[in-house]
Amino acid sequence: xxxxxxxVIVALALVVSSGMAGCDSPAPPAVTEATAPPPKxxxxxxxxxxxxxxxxxxxxxxxxxxxxSGGPIECWLEIEEQGQATMPKRIPEKDSFGAGSxxxxxxGTILFWWSRRQDGQGGQxxxxxxxxxxxxxxxxxxxxxxxxxxxxQPRVIGKEELKTGEPGKEFVIVDYDANEIVLDPEGGQxxxxxxxxxxxxxxxxxx
Length: 207
Known about the structure:
With about 210 residues, the chain is an alpha+beta fold. The chain has one domain (about 50-200). About 15% of the residues lie in helices and about 35% in strands. It is built from three helices and nine strands; from the N terminus they run H-H-E-E-E-E-E-E-E-H-E-E. It has helices at about 5-20, 50-60, 160-165; strands at about 60-70, 75-80, 90, 110-115, 125-130, 130-140, 150-155, 170-180, 195-200. It has a five-stranded antiparallel β-sheet with strand order 3-2-9-8-7, with no helix packed on it. The protein has a four-stranded antiparallel β-sheet with strand order 1-4-5-6. Strand 5 and strand 6 form a beta hairpin. The N and C termini lie far apart (about 145 Å).
C-alpha cells in the first residue's frame, strides 16, 4: 500500500525532532554582573590654618627665620654684587648686631627678610634680632628689582648646626645667590648681573 505524502512529511518531522533532542545544545552565554563605578568624592571646602609661607606670599615678603640658644650671638649681612652696585657691602658696615651688648639674650629668634612695594617703586631689607634690628631702604632698581628674570639658590644652616656653633668661629646662617636671566632677542653680549647675600653669625668667646 503506497504511503501518502502527508504521512511521509510527518514522519520526517518526528525523526528530525528526535535527533535534535539527543544533541547537546550550546550553553547560553554567561551573565556577568556590571561593576559599579567607584563612588565620587563629595565636593567640600575645609578651612586650614594660615602658615608662615602663605602669609609671606600674601604680603610679598621673602623671609627666613632662625632660632639660637646656649649663648648670645652676633650677626651681620655680607653683600656681593656683580654688574651693579646698589647696596652696601656689609650691614652694619662695622661690627655686628649684638657686639658689645650688655646682658645680651642667650636665646632668641633672628629674622631676615625683604619685600618689594606693590607699585614697584622700591622696597625694604630687614634684619631683626633680640639685641637689635636694622632696616635698609631699596630703590626701584636695587637688589634684583630691576631685573626681568632671575634664578635663586637659597641655602640655610641646619637647626642643630646653628645651636652648636663653635665660639669665635663665623658661620653662614642664610646663603642667597641670585643670578639674572638675560633675555636678549638680538643676541647681544650683555653680562648677567648677580647678587649674593650671606647672613653671618658668630657666638662670641666667653671672657
